[in-house]
Design goal:
alpha+beta, 4-stranded mixed sheet, 5 helices, globular
Length: about 110
Amino acid sequence: MKNLTTINVLYDGNCRFWVRITRLVKRLDRGQYIHLTNIADRNFEARIYDKSQSELTAELHVQLSDGTWLKGSNAFRVLFSNSSLRPLVLVSSLPLLRHFSNAVYEVLMNML
């Protein structure tokens, strides 16, 4: 996982889990690499991102500085890749552990 310049994280501000995660991320983001966009904000317009509101609400979306979109567990990894949790991200990206961490992400998301 390489270092990124900036990322835009589209998160559901109506979900307590994502609100807690974004608070943690902001504390860990000492380089200010992360921009948070609350898709539950009444002024948010999904069409600006060429996505539907329901698509964005279904799972975490991260837009990299080059315009590339990541979603799901890959977005989650990138979210923490520029923080002090980077070693954990690198371990979770190893081939055998990647499948396990993807499964954990899916279980968590299905619990929300």
